[in-house]
Amino acid sequence: MLTSVTLALAGEIETFGGTVESSPTKNNPYHSTLSGITFQQAEQLFNPNIKKPTK
C-alpha cells in the first residue's frame, strides 16, 4: 500500500539535465520514466516524502 508520495515537475527534472517520458502501464496510465540524472539529483528533487492523506 502506498503511504507516502513525492512530486517533482518535469521542468525541475529538465533543469538537472534529465528527461521525463510518458510510459503508461495497465494499472497506472500516468506513469512516467525518468532518465538522465544521478541518484543524488533525483533524491534532492523527490524529498521530502509527503504522507499520503487517508480517504
Quick recap:
The chain is built from two helices and four strands. It is α+β, with helices and mostly antiparallel strands and 55 residues long. The strands form two sheets. Strands 1-4 form a two-stranded antiparallel ribbon. The protein has a two-stranded antiparallel sheet with strand order 2-3.
Task: Provide a descriptive summary of the structure in words.
The protein has 55 residues and is α+β, with helices and mostly antiparallel strands. Helices cover 24% and strands 22% of the residues. The chain is flat, with a radius of gyration of 12 Å. The protein is built from two helices and four strands; from the N terminus they run βαββαβ. The strands form two sheets. Strands 1-4 form a two-stranded antiparallel ribbon.
- Which runs of at least 5 residues are low in confidence (pLDDT < 50)? none
- Total of helices: 2
What fraction, in percent, of the residue positions are helical? 10-25%
Give the strand tally.
Answer: 4
**What separation lies between the terminal Cα atoms?**
13 Å
**Chain-averaged pLDDT:** 79
Which series of helices and strands comes N to C?
Answer: EHEEHE
The SS-based structural class is: alpha+beta
Large-scale geometry: flat
Radius of gyration from CA coordinates: 12 Å
How large a portion of the residues is in β-strands, by DSSP E? 15-25%
Domain count:
1
Q: Give, in spatial order, the strands making up the sheet with the most strands.
A: 1-4
> Biggest β-sheet: count, sense, barrel?
2 strands, antiparallel
